[in-house]
Amino acid sequence: MTNFVRRAITGACIVIFVLGGLWLHPISFFLVGAVMIAGTQREYYIMVRGTGVRPQLVTGIISGFLLYFTSTIVAIGWLPWEGFLVLIPVISIIMVIELFRNVERPFDSLAHTFFSILYTAVPFSLFPLAAFNHTGLSSLVPMEGIVFSPGILIGFFLLLWTNDTAAYLVGSSIGRHRLWERISPKKSWEGFFGGLVLTVLVACLFSGWLGVTDTKGWMIIAVIISVAGTFGDLLESMLKRSLGFKDSGTIMPGHGGFLDRFDSVVVAFPLVYLYLAMTV
Hints:
- The protein is an all-alpha fold.
- The protein contains eleven helices and two strands, in the order H-H-H-H-H-H-H-E-E-H-H-H-H.
- It has helices at residues 3-24, 26-49, 57-76, 88-99, 106-124, 126-131, 151-174, 189-210, 215-243, 258-262, 265-279, and strands at 178-180, 184-188.
- A two-stranded antiparallel ribbon has the order 1-2.
- A hairpin with a 3-residue loop joins strand 1 and strand 2.
- Helix 5 (106-124) packs across helix 11 (265-279).
């Protein structure tokens, strides 16, 4: 099997898992986000362990899940916004646990344990806040008593993948001017602008179907995704270079790991959510 075929099959599976899970039902929506958090955090901790630092892998992943779970029940309305305060003891617990671990570089361990939560768990924990108690594109299977629309997430990933695909095709075809050669030698300005233009066009095409905001709003979201998503990709490339890894994992043949696939999300989605929170 050629690498292209392998990438295509894996890519199709990723699309079905992400878009299908987010769109199907609120429970499948929750599970997809939980898998993304656990997968990205695990890969981050494993890469860091390759440098000799021993972050709290299990504690960190549990903390990320607790943040995501709390965000979900707050978004549904089962818990007031003050409910996030229950997570404050988690910070203290992580620091106290470090006292009992007897590792050589405890504060490096703490720094990486907390950074993984900030880097991946916080952005993915915004997913429920963008979907529950919002109207727009309906889930395929409604849930009684829950106001839910995955429209913003469906649109986000459609535009994100459009940008990635267009940037790759244009960059590999006519890319001559390096975008950020020190970090990612293959990225080009031609690819960046090719991705940006096509992403805006797709946003115009699907804006009426997705709802949540108008066409102008989706065009702005497309620009945010294209620019911020590129920085997210570069940030993860810098992370892998600093830790000495080519890919964050091998769970997705031809695509690497969770961080390789969702690196753009961690920078782009918080900005998209901020824009929507201020305008919708």
